[in-house]
Each structure stands twice: as structure tokens, then as C-alpha cells.
């Protein structure tokens, strides 16, 4: 549970693997240092016990053979880092309870206990401190005062070596995780760039077996999708071509009909059929990917030309604002998108207004506005689906094919632009096309 709670923080696989490896290495390094230091202390303790047994035995024998008036002068010479000799009864205290002190008392007893009667006690207030009491041959009391050293001192450079070692392990961990997760990042990037044109960059099929197999599978998936889309386009193109002939024959037959009223209705039906077929093929082509190459254009001139064409046709279309900067985009696709949006505005609002605004981050917004009935908020995204038409527009005057906005959205995606619809305050609809600006 603690590991799961720890992994809830980082969101990326790189961060999670790096955290797991770094924590594992840090714990392993700490455990290794602790085990090494414990073994080192135990070894030094064992060596010290043998040293104390020999040295204390020699020192007590020397003091016992010295004249009483010379013993005091020898005490500083016989003193060591952890114990000293005191000519006297020493201090009283409780029983020896510390593990190290008990081992020292046992070591001293094994060395000189056969010849001298020993008593040992701890010093009040300092349980690790030990005093061993005995009497020399002439009855002089002698006390061995032992001050244990808790552990062997560490070298001053050892901590820096451990820190450097941990830093090297962290760097190696970061490099290993980065090399392991880089193919996944490339796969995610390739999947993100797989747009309607199906021209994402192919992944290199090298590296470890698992990575190479995933790259081959992704590249094969791209090829299959491209093949399916090509087949669909070919089917729609064939259907469109085959329908043109019967539609033309039906038109000729309608032209020679005596009933002019029925003939006009049939002519309108045939026109709608032909329009639907053409729009279907256009939508399939936009789904398959635009073949138009991006060009550096003057968007102000393109939009002004588009507006002039509508004005010449007697349509109420106006243009506000200027970009005054070049755009690298697909001009025919841009013209088709804005044209579809203007056609919708004219169809439902009777007039259209094109507003151009330069945004931050080198972006440009082309908005097409109308004062038509608008679209219910819950349907603002649904109308971009192919063949989706609102119930209120299913009539001969404004029904359409339901593909105009779908084609515009697909072309926008192919141009790396965004297209969205928004209801205007006071009624009407605003279509916003956001493109990237150059310069």
C-alpha cells in the first residue's frame, strides 16, 4: 500500500521507473553501509578483546613485580585509550549489564582471573563504563577503569565517497530509464501525429526485441489503415462515377416529360442526389488526407478575393480586420473551409460576417458570424459528424447533405488548425477557425 501511495505522485512512466530504481538503490546502498559498518565494529571488538586480554595481563604482572613506591610512576605508561589503572579500590556500582562491558570483564578474567580474585561492576550513571577490582600479591588494591569506545571512527572522506557513489548510481539509473522509455515516447509521439493524412513518421525498427516488435506492429498498423482508407476512397469514387451516368439519363428523361411540375421536383431530387454524391467523395478525400502542399500565402488577399466572389454573386458578406502577416498553410483547403462556413451562415442567417483577429502565440482566428437561429448547446459538436443535420433544418431549402461542417473539420485537422462553433449573444452562430501564423 505504501508503494502504491508513493507511485501516485509521478504521472509518467519515466518518473515512476526512475523513482523505483533510485529508492531501491538508495535503500540497498544504506543497507550495505550498515552491514559493512556493523561487521567492521564486530571485527574491531574481537581484536580489541584479544588485545585487552594480553595487555592487561602483562600490565598487572608488571605492576605486581614492581616495588610499591614505583608503581604510581608506571600507571600513565600502562594506560591505553580505553582503560587506565588506578591504585585504589575504585568506585562502587551495580552489576555489569552492558554487552560490551560484560565481554571486556570476561576477557580480563580469562587473562588474569586464574591468579587474582576479580570483581567487576558498572559505574553509577554510566552503564557502559566498567571497573574491575583485584589485589596485588602484597595486598595493594588495583582498579582497571574501562571506558568503552562505542564504534570505530569513520574516515572524513568516506561520507563524500558514499555521496559520490549515490550520485553515480542515480545518474546511471536516469540514463537506463531514459533509454528504456524513449521508444515508448517515440511511439506516443507517432500516434499523436497520426492525423487524417496518415503520414506519421515511421518508427525505427531497431533496438531491443520488444521495442522492435512494437515498432513493426505500429508501422504495420499505419499501412493497414492507409490501405483501408484508400480502398474506401476508391469505392466511393467508383460509386460516384457509376451514379453519374444514370443521373444524367434521368435528367434527360425528365426534360422531355410533359408534366412540368413533376419534372421540376424530379430535377431538384436529382440535383440533391448529385450533390450528395460529390460531397461524399469530397469528405472521403479529406479523411484520406489532403494532397495539397502547404504554401506561404497572403491570407488577407485570399479572404478579400473570397468575399469579392460572394459580393459579385449578390450575397451579403463583409470582411473585418486584417492579419498583415504571411501564413504557411494549404490555400485551397483554407478557402474551402471558410467557404463552407460562409455558405452555412448565408443559408441559415441570410448574411455572413468574416472577422480576422491576430492572437498571441503566433496564431490567427478567422471567425464567420451570422444572425441565424443558432444551434442548441448540446449539438455544437454533434453537427461536425458526417450526415448529421438538426431536425429543424430537414427541409429542401436548408437541409443540405450534412457533410459541409464535417469536411471543414477534417480539412482543419489536416492543416493543424482548430474549428469550433459558438452561439452568439443575442442570437446567431460564430464559427472560429484558429490557425498558426508565421512571421
Give me the side-by-side strand order of the main sheet: 6-8-9-11-10
Work out the helicity level: 40-55%
- What is the averaged pLDDT score? 77
Task: Write down the CATH class of the largest domain.
Answer: Alpha Beta
The Rg value, from CA coordinates, equals: 46 Å
Straight-line distance between termini: 54 Å
Order of helices and strands: HHHEHEEEHHHEHEEHEEHEE
CATH architecture term of the largest domain: 2-Layer Sandwich
Query: By helix and strand content, what is the structural category?
Result: alpha+beta
Total beta strand runs: 11
Which term fits the overall shape? rod-shaped
Largest sheet: 5 strands, mixed
**What is the CATH superfamily classification of the largest domain?**
Histidine kinase-like ATPase, C-terminal domain
CATH fold call of the largest domain = Heat Shock Protein 90
Walk me through the topology:
Layout (H helix, E strand, L loop, with lengths): L1 H6 L5 H53 L2 H11 L4 E4 L12 H14 L6 E5 L2 E10 L5 E6 L11 H35 L16 H47 L4 H29 L6 E3 L1 H14 L4 E4 L6 E3 L1 H19 L2 E8 L3 E8 L33 H11 L3 E6 L5 E8 L3
Parallel strand pairs: 6-8
Antiparallel strand pairs: 1-4, 2-3, 3-4, 5-7, 8-9, 9-11, 10-11
Helix pairs in contact: 2-4, 2-5, 6-7, 7-10, 8-9, 9-10
